[in-house]
Design a protein that fits this description.
about 230 residues, alpha+beta, Pathogenesis-related Protein p14a, 4-stranded mixed sheet, 9 helices, elongated
Length: about 230
Amino acid sequence: PNKDRELLGQPTLSSEEFVKLVNEKRNQKLTLKPSLTKSSTLRGQNLLKDENTSYSMQNALSSANYSNIVLGEFISHGHFTAQELLENLLFNAGTSKQILNQDYSDLGISAVNKEVNGCPTQIIVGHLGGYLPASYDQSVIDSWRSLGDNLRSIIPSWEAAKDYESIDQTKLSMLLALLHTRLSLAEEIVQSMEKRAWLTPDQQARIKADQDSATRATQLTSELNQE
């Protein structure tokens, strides 16, 4: 307790030393990221205020403007040197597997001090991040490619109908706009999937909206064919 009080406000953990020691155990090296250092600090500060805080890791990552595909967090209570912390983490099967996980490439770690109920308290928070390419079933990619091929084959005939006075040009313009929008989406999704890129929220929203576009295009096609 006396030692803890002496150390209050004086973190003994060196993040640079910690990442150096961890990397000696790993094949893919971790890199210290300032944004993750910020997020781990924010998370630690909120945990010291209230261990049941609703301020989650994701809240902290968002506040620090960090995003990635694979994310992780480890927490330790007490004062540790880098070597002591690593030994502690490696001793536990769960945290050992976590910090040695080759999917991670980024690290941020913070030691936060505060006097809680009259007692000097330190919490250490580590945040990990990494990227994994997306994986898509070939049948899904083929279905989007097929959609694109189909749209490319039918658009020219509808484009030619712009010269037909008997065709409702307002409906035709609406149909062509829908077909071109769907074609653009299909080409974009195929490209993203072939690159094994993760679909963005915007792409996911447009895929969802495409169902309505397909229904409306079918309806317009039917109406125009009856003219």
